[in-house]
Design brief:
The chain contains 12 helices and 15 strands. The chain has 332 residues and is of the alpha/beta class. The strands form 5 sheets. A 7-stranded parallel sheet has the order 3-2-1-4-5-7-12, sandwiched between helices. The chain has a two-stranded parallel sheet with strand order 6-15. Helix 1 (11-22) packs across helix 7 (204-213). It starts with a strand and ends with a helix.
């Protein structure tokens, strides 16, 4: 089977590409990091560097593909809106056009639960839970626009399954834990609400499993969205204690009242938009929501309809991340 993976040089895309190649699929991978692309070629993958903003290049990549995994996105808490719009929304439109033109058998679209984000606690969110009209940042806004483009394509007959994986972590994690460790090095990890807010995270291999399940999911799954997590909500403080125990490092935290932090994030975002739009603020509402607000998800639908079941526990995932992290530190 011929399979295309976009965003193949990113965290999820890279892991998915390697898994598909190991399973014997004829994988074409695309992304912007040519160094990682070269590494993928050593895994018997055909790597074609391309930018999601290049409509013709993306359409051409869909030729002779049976399945497309659209993992590519600009995922960041801050940045120019037009960059997010062009990559996340228009890039998805280009993928849709390529799939339609070349009659791809199915498209697996990777979205995000960030579209649910609002500055308040939310527990057991389902795929039918209301989406706030005002999104928390450009990333969430443009990923929501991308989902709407997918919905329109489904109405036109394109077979699509959408996954919303929550807070992916594991070895080579470029974002969540490295950001926490940067905060740790600066002055300690901030705790809002005492770190007692409940959050869901998802180990990378479990997300890849969910993607693979979409290959043979029944046609009744087309047009649907599925929340993906480890199905094991923990408090933020519990996760930190587990992480630093595995890292064999003392945990340093600092308690900050949530209302003050929220006000500070608004002030910093406003100031940066006016005076330093390209520089990320020290604190954003998005980052505050990730680690300071309760947000958990019901994954019953993915279990029932995709047969999804997280195989790697949070404990095992933390151990794997910690082992990888220590090796990276020793190599510096």
């Amino acid at each position: 089977m011929n399979v295309l993976v976009t965003g193949a040089t990113g965290f999820l895309g890279q892991s998915l590409t390697k898994r598909l190649a190991a399973m014997g699929f004829q994988v074409t991978a695309t992304g912007r990091n040519q160094a990682i692309g070269k590494q993928l070629e050593n895994k018997h993958v055909t790597f074609v560097p391309a930018d999601l903003r290049d409509a013709e290049a993306i359409k051409n990549l869909c030729r002779q593909q049976e399945v497309v995994f659209h993992c590519g996105a600009l995922s960041a808490p801050w940045g120019p809106y037009q960059d997010f719009y062009q990559i996340n929304y228009l890039g998805t439109k280009h993928i849709i056009a390529g799939c339609q033109q070349h009659q791809v058998r199915r498209l697996i679209h990777i979205s995000t639960p960030s579209i649910y984000n609002r500055s308040q606690d939310q527990l057991n969110l389902t795929e039918a839970s209301p989406i706030p009209q005002r999104k928390i940042n450009a990333y969430a806004e443009t990923k929501w626009l991308a989902e709407q483009a997918i919905d329109a394509a489904v109405q036109e007959g394109l077979p699509v399954i959408t996954l919303r994986p929550r807070a992916i972590f594991g070895p080579k994690d470029p974002s969540i834990f490295p950001r926490l460790l940067q905060a740790y090095d600066r002055s300690g990890i901030p705790l809002f609400k005492g770190g007692n807010n409940q959050i869901d995270i998802t180990y990378i291999d479990n997300v890849v499993d969910a993607c693979i399940l979409c290959l043979n999911a029944p046609d009744s799954c087309f047009g649907k969205k599925y929340n993906i997590t480890n199905d094991d909500p923990r408090t933020f403080l519990e996760l930190l204690e587990l992480l630093f125990r595995e890292l064999q490092m003392p945990l340093k935290t600092k308690k900050i009242p949530y209302p003050i932090a929220h006000l500070l994030a608004i002030v910093l975002e406003t100031a940066h938009k006016l005076f330093a739009p390209t520089k990320e603020p020290l604190l954003t509402r998005y980052a505050l929501n990730v680690i300071g607000v309760s947000q958990t998800f019901d994954i019953s639908l993915a279990k029932k309809e995709l047969g999804y079941s997280p195989k790697v526990s949070i404990e095992e995932g933390m151990q794997r991340f910690a082992d990888w992290w220590r090796k990276q530190q020793c190599a510096k």
